[in-house]
Amino acid sequence: MDAGKAEREELPTQTYRVTRADLVRYAGASGDFNVIHWSERLATKVGLPNVIAHGMLTMALAGRAVTTWAGAPDAVVDFSVRFSRPVPVPDDDEGTEVEFRGVAKGETEDGLTQIDITATCHGEKVLSQARAIVRRQRA
Amino acid sequence: MPLDKSFIGRTYPPTAPYQVGREKIREFAKAIGATDPLYLDPEAARAAGYTDVIAPPTFPVIISMAASRQIVDDPALGVDYSRVVHGDQRFAYQRPVVAGDELVCVNSVEEILSRGGHDFLTTRTDVSTSAGEPVVSVWSKLVVRGEG
Q1: What is the distance in angstroms between the Cα of B76 and the nearest Cα belonging to chain A?
Q2: Nearest-CA distance A54 → chain B (Å)
Q3: pTM
Q4: Residue burial B38-76, b: 16+ Cβ < 10 Å; e: rest
């Protein structure tokens, strides 16, 4: 992002692949062992189409996009999302893809920029009201 | 039965300290595919002014989600966790979490709403060092789906 730019700036789209192996890895790293993230049998039993990704994994990937756009891993001041739709992950080598688009909305006087995030999987929005506030980086 | 709204504003006692480990941060970064040297390499983190590797933005959920079971598992509130869906999530940062931090959580019930047969419970977790330095505040809105 160019510091000091006042207008809306479209940021380069970030696309991340999510496979079953990623869900297992995230479950272990985060401590979230909810069965709907690893058992197709139990996920479909509660009415889900398939095993679904952890909402917090989707948010973590959105965070990756934001820190990539901001150019620093420690630039995020505020970060919020609403989980609007699950991300089903099939049991194959391809898994699925989540695409993140971002629009930076100018900069405030105290050097903060709001980024509005759109996250889609197979063209459907999986997050809504997703936004981050990032701090301008020291040059 | 709808959740008891008298719980709004209730604050719970601070949780036992959580020791943030360097390897846990690396494990988490790897799990989300994040490769920034500040997450992985203590030297790179020190060069950027931190005492050790820093955690990715959503790392605090590991601590806050476990801590907020204080509310979710409170028998007096009576949340049926098998009916819970994660609605919203927000983090407001004072600074990134750094390996070596010893973090304490104070949970509170920020909001309870009942709409369309469902309950909406917003928990707030204020995460600070055991020395009292605020690090991050975490909000989770949980949807408790009504029966039937």
Answers
A1: 24
A2: 10
A3: 0.95
A4: bbbeeeebeeeebeebbbbbbbbbbbbbbbbebbbeeee
